Amino acid sequence: MNKHIAIIGLGLIGGSLAKALREFDASLAIAAADTDQNALARALADGVIGRAGALAEICAQARIVVVAVPPLAGPAVLRQIAQCAGPETLVTDVASVKSHLLATLASLPAGFRSRFVPGHPLAGSEQSGFGAARADLFQGRNVVLAPLEETAPEAVARIHELWRGIGAQVLAMSPERHDRILALSSHLPHVLAFAMAGLLPRREGGAGVHHYAATGFADFTRLAASEPALWSDILRANADATVAALDAFGEDLKQFRDALAAEDWPALGGNLQRARRARAAFDLARGGKEAGNAGGELCFHVRPGGAIRPGRIRVPGDKSISHRAIMLGALAEGVSRVSGFLEGEDALHTLAAFRELGVTIVGPEDGCLRIYGAGANGFQAPRKPLWLGNSGTAMRLLAGVLAGQGFASELRGDESLSQRPMNRIVKPLADMGAVISADGGKPPLRIGGGRLRGIDYAMPVASAQVKSCLLLAGLFAEGVTSVREPGPCRDHTERMLRGFGVELDTGSRPGMMNLAGGQTLSACDIDIPGDISSAAFFLVAAAISPGASLTLEHVGVNPTRTGIIDILRQMGADIRLHNPRESGGEPVADIEVRQRPLHGVDIGAELVALAIDEFPVLLVAAACAEGETRISGAAELRVKESDRIEAMAEGLGILGIEHETFPDGIRVTGGELGGGVIDSRGDHRIAMAFAIAALRCRQAITIRNCANVATSFPGFAALARQMGLDISEADIDS
Ligand code: S3P
Fold first, then answer.
1. Which of 167, 334, 472, 684 has the most C-beta neighbours closer than 10 Å?
2. Are residues 534 and 510 in the same domain?
3. Domain's final residue, options 527, 548, 572
4. 489 and 509 housed in the same domain
5. pTM to 2 decimal places
6. DSSP-assigned letters across all residues of 166-213
7. β-pairing verdict for 335-339 and 409-412
8. C-alpha 657 chain-centroid distance
9. What integer pLDDT is reported at residue 644 of this predicted model?
10. How far does the centroid of ligand 1 lie from the alpha carbon of residue 464, in Å?
């Protein structure tokens, strides 16, 4: 490997990078160029760089050139580098603005553009210059890569590796989004600090006025000690986005001002409370933990009298398919593009886990992702336990991927996930030769990594998570992995594996799959349809709301997921599928539903796996139906995000609905619904189901513990409100 690295600009960031690289690999040949001869002399004397020279001279020899100059100097430097760097040389930068480079890049040769990887370490301080440089500046910090469409995947991979090598976490997004976000997260706070620092002496001048300013003033204005020349440069480079950020801030600030001026104390208190929640979420995320329900408990209040308005809506992308798109895209060779990705917490945990495994993923941005596949053997050992929040799918499928890697890993989750059974995957994976353990059969999962061999496995329960886990592990196994399912369950993994070019033989018997290990996945594009499990809440809402007629557009109607439609139709609902089509290997349709009187039905085991996630809201339909509904063969409902049989029984009981539970099901008699306070037990689907029930309640319902709705259906309450529910969200301080 060519070990020559050239750094253009030895200020705080360039100098810290030189120091970090020197510590990481003493054999690197680091050269630098700077107009500040003192910085160069000091770096040479300290042994941080091996050589100082002119830009053209050091770039000609370098394998990687890092541009670490102030943003406005970037375009001219890039033009110079394009003229002197060799055809193989990769170029990256560290500027805190990205889109101002785009015009210059467009004027440079395509070959140069394909080797340029825009980058930005989210690290720094109010100090500047080589004197403030530190080798550990990037340790544990985020670095954003903003590759262009035409940036070569190999270039992205090399620059990712460079930052990871010195301890950083690599995120990725488009240059435009980077600049919008940085305007809000960094450029605006700097402007505010600069503006604030001068306000006190200007307005209340006089000797000693600073004696009256203490910690709050110091904390708030710390950024105003930053180098004005550099900040003038940054703000000019990102002027449009910073002006937009200032406008947004002005609007928010006005809410505080108006609440104070109008003595609207509840509004003031609400604003303060929301802000504190946001700040607590930031603290948790910064400490490596997930936001969850930071700083309080989220409740839904739903008043009676709501009704579903006629209309057409779209629900967010399918959660199951979103998880799989990340996983298979990461395992593939080449760049996969995904649209319709669910930006909910569960799928975002999967995304973050694969980033930690060394995969570059651009986005999500309006549901779009670009995944730079690492190939089957391209993952890096994770540096910390992988946090999967509330997501059983993420944990079980990821375990399959990780079992066949050459490194150890650990998978962790929240309180609910830590109670969910894992032996269903631990046992068959161990049979394949995996080194894997879970204390008492519960997370955390500890995976040793190693060599796998194919097995022939008959699943005791129809679980798509188990099936998918074993098929993914089978990709890394020697020989053939055969999985038999006792009954049909969702087949997204099989469909998507085929889309990525994997041969999967469905065998001679129904429900049998054979997969030969060692196959290569080739990148492909995936358009993810709306999630029928999220649509289910509005299907039932329209089915029970008098006079309702609603169309849900672009919903996945894979036959292994449409149990909800079959069951609601059996109950008398009027549901029609329009415009059936195929999208990304999955059947999709627009679903129209009109309210009709419902009646109770018997739901047997054969339908359970096909509607497994929809039972909470189906039980709401049952409570609004004439007569009795009985569900059996559904013991699996007891080991979901909560014991859904007990959670629903408890809530329906509070609403006055007669019911009886069994080990494998529940019987519900339809009737009048009252109101009251219901605990969702932190289960997203229980929370949303009871919000829908309020359409037929005589009194208001308060649903507690609703933060996890964000795992699968971000924006649920807003959409429900828009469609006619009288729903509001409130924080209760914990
Ligand atoms: C899922 C499968 C189902 C479902 C879960 C998502 C998946 O679980 O309940 O929400 O994406 O494979 P089981 O397959 O374990 O029943």
1. 684
2. no
3. 527
4. yes
5. 0.94
6. TTPEEEE--HHHHHHHHIIIIIHHHHHHHHHHHHHHHHS-STTGGGG-
7. unpaired
8. 38
9. 98
10. 5
Residue 710 domain-assigned (yes or no): yes
Over the stretch 243-296, which tens digit does the pLDDT of each residue have? Answer: 999 999 999 999 999 999 999 999 999 899 889 988 988 888 877 665 454 556
pLDDT in tens, 599-648: 999 999 999 999 999 999 999 999 999 999 999 999 999 999 999 999 99
Name the burial class of residue 107, with classes exposed (0-12), middle (13-18) and buried (19+) by CB atoms within 10 angstroms of its CB. exposed
Centre of ligand 1 to C-alpha 424, Å, is 13
Residue 228 CB burial class (10 angstroms; 0-12, 13-18, ≥19): exposed
User: Is residue 123 in a domain?
Assistant: yes
Tallying the residues shown for the chain, one arrives at 734
Residues 504 and 516 in one domain: yes
Does a structural domain hold residue 130?
yes
Domain count of the chain? 3
Whether 242 is in the pocket of ligand 1, judged by its Cβ within 6 Å, is: no
Residue 612 in contact with ligand 1 by CB distance below 6 A: yes
Q: Give the domain extent around 129.
A: 4-138
Q: What is the pLDDT of residues 390-445, one digit of tens each?
A: 999 999 999 999 999 999 999 999 999 999 999 999 999 999 999 999 999 999 99
Is 613 a residue of the active site? Answer: yes
Q: Is residue 583 domain-shared with residue 502, that is, in the same domain?
A: no
- Tell me the helices (H) and strands (E) count for the chain, helix number first: 27, 35
Residue pair 155/115 in contact by the 8 Å Cβ criterion:
yes
Are 25 and 42 found together in one domain? yes
336 lines ligand 1 (CB under 6 A): no
Q: Is any ligand 1 atom within 6 A of the Cβ of residue 598? A: no
Task: Please check the confidence at residue 326 and state whether its pLDDT lies above 80.
Answer: yes
pLDDT-derived band at 55 (thresholds 50, 70, 90) equals: very high
**539 and 632 share one domain:** yes
Identify the domain boundary among 82, 112, 138.
138
User: Which position has the higher pLDDT, 513 or 125?
Assistant: 513
Domain assignment present for residue 188? The answer is no
Which atom of ligand 1 sits closest to the CA of residue 609? 16
465 CA → ligand 1 middle, Å: 5
Cα 644 to averaged position of ligand 1 atoms, centre (Å)? 14
Does the beta carbon of 320 lie inside 6 Å of ligand 1? Answer: yes
Q: Is the CB of 680 under 6 A from ligand 1?
A: no
Q: How many CA atoms lie within 13 A of 261 on its CB side?
A: 6
CATH code assigned at 58: 3.40.50.720
- Please list, residue by residue across 24-48, b when 16 or more beta carbons sit within 10 angstroms of its beta carbon and e when fewer do: eeeebbbbbbbeeeebbebbeeeeb
Our answer on whether the CB atom of 558 is closer than 6 Å to any ligand 1 atom is no
* Domain co-membership, 596 together with 711: yes
Query: Which amino acid does the sequence have at 170?
Result: V
Pocket test for ligand 1, best of 345, 388, 612 (most atoms within 8 A of CB): 612
Q: Whose CA is nearest to atom 11 of ligand 1?
A: 320
Average pLDDT value for the chain:
95
Q: Which of 233, 414, 491, 613 does the annotation list as catalytic?
A: 613
